[in-house]
Amino acid sequence: MMKIAVRYFSRTGNTKKLAEAIAKAVGVEAVEVSAPMLEKADLVFLGSSVYAAGVDSAVRNFMEDNNYRIGKLVNFSTAALLSSTYDQVKKIAELNDIEVAEEEFHCRGSFAFLHRGRPNEEDLAEAAAFARRVVGFKA
Ligand SMILES: Cc1cc2nc3c(=O)[nH]c(=O)nc-3n(C[C@H](O)[C@H](O)[C@H](O)COP(=O)(O)O)c2cc1C
Q1: What is residue 110's DSSP assignment?
Q2: Distance from CA of residue 26 to its chain's centroid?
Q3: For residue 8, which atom of ligand 1 is closest to its CA?
């Protein structure tokens, strides 16, 4: 059976909401990137976001420390302005020999007065449907 993990970094809780919706959809726990990865996973949903245009170093550290435990990475993200963290995560992945799925999930994340309430229920439902699609479950 395919082993799935959901990992995330979330400073203000937005990406954590996506992580939890995705984890619930695929039947695992959402775990912060700072927790050690104890076993390999065929598929790792990795959630991140941007702070002054960059993903947090905790995300990079997670990928560096666990590259041989990650079968394939699926990116998901929230941001106020940037359209996705995909390019940044993909670049780090390439440096660490990690395969990244082409499909990804991104939605707006609230920041100050911008995008209040995002991710909202609709975003979370879309994230869950995305995750089920990726792992091949019926939506
Ligand atoms: C310190 C800080 C800097 C940010 N810089 C950016 C940025 O450069 N571009 C952007 O699109 N969003 C930026 N944001 C907005 C966050 O990416 C957005 O709120 C995101 O949903 C936060 O995710 P999190 O709650 O999981 O930490 C910034 C947020 C913070 C707190």
Answers
A1: -
A2: 13
A3: 26
Residue whose CA lies nearest to ligand 1 atom number 27:
11
Give the distance (Å) from ligand 1 centre to CA of residue 12.
8
135 with 4: CB under 8 angstroms?
yes
As to burial, measured by CB atoms within 10 angstroms (0-12 exposed, 13-18 middle, 19+ buried), residue 59 is: buried
- Taking only the tens place, the pLDDT of each residue in 1-33 is 899 999 999 999 999 999 999 999 999 999 999
User: Looking at the DSSP assignment, which residues form a beta bridge with residue 70?
Assistant: 41
Q: What are the structural domains of the chain?
A: 4-135 (3.40.50.360)
φ/ψ of 103, rounded to 5, equals -75, 145
Does residue 109 line the site of ligand 1, with CB under 6 A?
yes
d(CA 47, CA 58): 11
The model's pTM: 0.97
Q: Which helix (H) or strand (E) holds 98?
A: none
